[in-house]
Design goal:
Elements lengths: L1 H34 L13 H5 L3 H13 L7 H4 L3 E2 L4 H10 L11 E2 L3 H10 L8 H19 L4 H18 L1 H9 L4
Parallel strand pairs: 1-2
Helix pairs in contact: 3-7, 6-7, 8-9
Length: about 190
């Protein structure tokens, strides 16, 4: 009889140990994000109404999904202030290179690649504890790709560059060690 109760107690203890461990795994992504900031994290975690007003309805839906879903692991500031720019295809990329060569000169301000946001959203969705469903991942990606062209290129490029350089400077001032890590990795 003692052996039976010892076994039951052992199973109960193991079960209790796994629940906090599962919660810790979920929280670890957010903890990692908070302890390893990027310049993006020093920017706003919201877009202003004037910017959103001109966006198509499906893109606005992606913004809402991003604000809710991505906050599981980091602030919405991280993707909103990212240097990532995703042109629609290789032809659009070639046009940007021809028409806006400055977008390719400073990797701390712009990183321009086809399917860049697509790849990152999929990567984030595969992290432990991420509860973003496939359909929401798709609309988040569509928002990020659209927004990256709308706010960071063309007539908005100079304003974006100034803001982005300010974010990099804030990281350097507030967390020199992290700034140096990202600089070394060419990941500012």
């Amino acid at each position: 009889m003692n052996l039976k109760w010892t076994f039951v107690a052992a199973v109960a203890l193991l079960g209790a140990a796994f629940v906090p461990a599962a919660r810790a795994a979920e929280m670890s992504e957010k903890d990692k994000a908070l302890s390893n900031p990027y310049p993006n994290d020093f920017g706003s975690d919201k877009l202003d109404d004037a910017t959103l007003k001109g966006y198509p309805a499906n893109v606005k839906a992606g913004y809402k999904a991003l604000s809710k879903g991505c906050a599981q692991c980091h602030s919405a500031a991280r993707p909103l202030n990212s240097r990532f720019v995703e042109p629609a295809d290789d032809a659009a990329l070639a046009k940007l290179k021809k028409d806006q060569p400055d977008l390719f000169k400073d990797g701390t301000v712009w990183q321009v690649e086809v399917k860049l946001w697509n790849r990152y959203v999929k990567r984030m969705m595969n992290k432990p504890g991420c509860n973003i469903e496939k359909k929401d991942g798709k609309i988040i990606w569509e928002f990020l790709a659209y927004d990256s062209i709308a706010r960071k290129t063309g007539a908005n490029a100079a304003k974006w560059a100034e803001m982005r350089k300010g974010l990099v400077d804030q990281l350097k001032a507030k967390n020199v060690k992290r700034y140096e890590e990202l600089k070394e990795a060419k990941d500012l």
